[in-house]
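Lab notebook, bench 4. The sequencing result for the construct came back, and we need a structural model before the next group meeting so we can plan mutations. Quick request posted to the team channel:

Model the 3D structure of this chain.
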Amino acid sequence: MKKKLIFGFHAVIARMRHDAASVEEVYIDSSRKDRRMLEFIGAAKSAGVRVIPVEEARLTKMVGVHRHQGVVAQVGETLLAQNLDELLDTIVGAPLILILDGITDPHNLGACLRVADGAGAHAVIAPKDRAVGLNATAIKVASGAADVVPYITVTNLARTLRALKERDILVLGTSDDAKQSLYQIDLAPKQGIALVMGSEGEGMRRLTREICDLLVQIPMYGSVDSLNVSVASGVFLYEAQRQRLLQKKNDV
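Done. Here's the predicted structure in token form:
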């Protein structure tokens, strides 16, 4: 089983709660004696996780950043859907999928995973190339969402979008120059939707844009002309869930 490192209180605690057996050992800053660290040590021991005190410099060397909060865990992979077919075969009801086309900032990826979990999305899909991987920084920013939201990387995003359409899932692309806003369209179709968000600077690639069934935009009422990709993802996903709840209420 492949091993990897995750760091930060939220990410490690979330993994212990979700799948304690996958946490092989936790390294902590031996100089920290504060209440938060003591509570964390207690939680780790209660979960049956081995805790190893080390110098802070070793933690920084392990993960390559200083923002580890004195907590680094070595973990195995969790059992989430690994490919598109496996994902779609396990979804009950209408799929709600977030697709990230070329997101290169791990902080944005982590934030997108976090908002996807909060909004009840079934998965996040991204291309393997020209995109950031699910590294330790993204996992930390996700605050546990990386352990519960399948993150599926694909070699050919265009092919994946076509496969979703073959399953009758509506593929919506987001673009600032789209003629319709998210408040003007049905974001709760019975067949489900896949929402495509473009990269931080360039937006969706041309082929991705052409494959989408429909392009939509978020209306902007202030002086800024765009939103961070994770914020925009949250706006769309929560509006989709709002429409689903309203539709469910009307069907009763």
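The mean pLDDT is 90.
Will bring this to the meeting.
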